[in-house]
Amino acid sequence: MDEFSFIQSIQQSYYRQPTLRKGVGDDAAIIRPSGEDIVIAKDMLVEHVHFIKSAMKPYHIGYKALAANLSDIAAMGATPAYYLVAISISNDWSNEELAEIYNGMKSLADRYKVDLIGGDTVSGTELVISITVIGYANRNISRLRSAAKEGDVVFVTGTLGDSQAGLHILQNAGTYKEEEYFKRRHQLPSPRVEFSLGLQQINRVALNDISDGIASEAHELAESSKVGMVLIEDKIPVHPAYAQFDSNLQYNWKLFGGEDFELLGTVSRSDWELVKQRAQQLSLRLTEIGYITNEKDAGKVFLQQENGKIIQLEKKGYNHLSR
Ligand SMILES: Nc1ncnc2c1ncn2[C@@H]1O[C@H](COP(=O)(O)OP(=O)(O)O)[C@@H](O)[C@H]1O
Ligand SMILES: Cc1ncc(C[n+]2csc(CCOP(=O)(O)OP(=O)(O)O)c2C)c(N)n1
Ligand SMILES: [Mg+2]
Ligand SMILES: [Mg+2]
Ligand SMILES: [Mg+2]
């Protein structure tokens, strides 16, 4: 198979999005939007950084690459519509493996009716997948990291630490409780798109998706909103089988581990009931984990420990350029 037949093989036979004028097959794609805000995000997945072949099947790699991007669209309260994929891949990946990478992306794309409208293909050394996602958002809602206000409830979806626990299991042979669950959370993360779209009635919700670890994303919210944040340690939600891991690992993964792709948010106390209702309708776990303080703590995040002591949390997490 050459580059041209490969591009032919990944083309959709039809497109679902009504605003598309031209998809794959010309010098660029054309969209004619209908008045909503356009939301654009990009995230890469790189071999040896985001995955190793022994822990991730080609299908998982494609799935996770698109999931990470959809997670950022969800964190902006937007409806995903299109994606573009740039892939650099070496010859030791077979045609079947390449097709499986695209099948992984396709399964999520089908679920959210997102159309593949372009990309680029290069033969390189390590596998690199760079995706751009385009979505639409209602002009009147704000999901910005800068939207948190004093007195807001701080909440998080799902459970934290699962993805890094899954990676640990994949890299360390042994017997584990709920092994399949943790591996799945690492390989096939769920972007919280439906939950985010369910909040459209609420004008102001500050949202950030957890890719680098909650400590890091909590700081991004606090810095951007110029407020302080208090997180209550024993409220941070974990899976019941999480207790099997060493307590240091538990602590590090849930606070600094990342790749859970859950949503961290803040909302006024008066809108909190509605947020809870939406999560309940989706059977999605949602936990109140803290509160927002005022501008005198601007940019700071505190952890109220189990013994009641409050410590300042470091802005630590996955950080690519820390050297
Ligand atoms: N190399 C880059 N060039 C331009 N903008 C970048 C680059 N890397 C990151 N950004 C931008 O910086 C912001 C934060 O990026 P990042 O921390 O990767 O966000 P996220 O964790 O939500 O994926 C985003 O607006 C992103 O588009
Ligand atoms: C082999 C391997 N080592 C380590 C990790 C953990 N890891 C890699 S990147 C990352 C953070 C998320 O990636 P990033 O590119 O920072 O995503 P973004 O914040 O831009 O969405 C984590 C936790 C992994 N998934 N696989
Ligand atoms: Mg990013
Ligand atoms: Mg993000
Ligand atoms: Mg991201």
UniProtKB/TrEMBL annotation:
Pathway: Cofactor biosynthesis; thiamine diphosphate biosynthesis; thiamine diphosphate from thiamine phosphate: step 1/1
EC number: 2.7.4.16
Residues annotated as binding Mg(2+) 3: D27, D72, D209
Residues the entry annotates as binding ATP: Y102, G119, D120, R145, S211
Binding positions (Mg(2+) 5): D212
Keywords: ATP-binding, Kinase, Magnesium, Metal-binding, Nucleotide-binding, Thiamine biosynthesis, Transferase
Residue ranges of domain PurM-like C-terminal in the record: 149-297
Binding site for Mg(2+) 2: D43, D72
Extra remark beyond the main annotation: Reaction mechanism of ThiL seems to utilize a direct, inline transfer of the gamma-phosphate of ATP to TMP rather than a phosphorylated enzyme intermediate.
NCBIfam families on file: thiL
Name recorded for this polypeptide: Thiamine-monophosphate kinase
Species this protein is from: Ornithinibacillus massiliensis
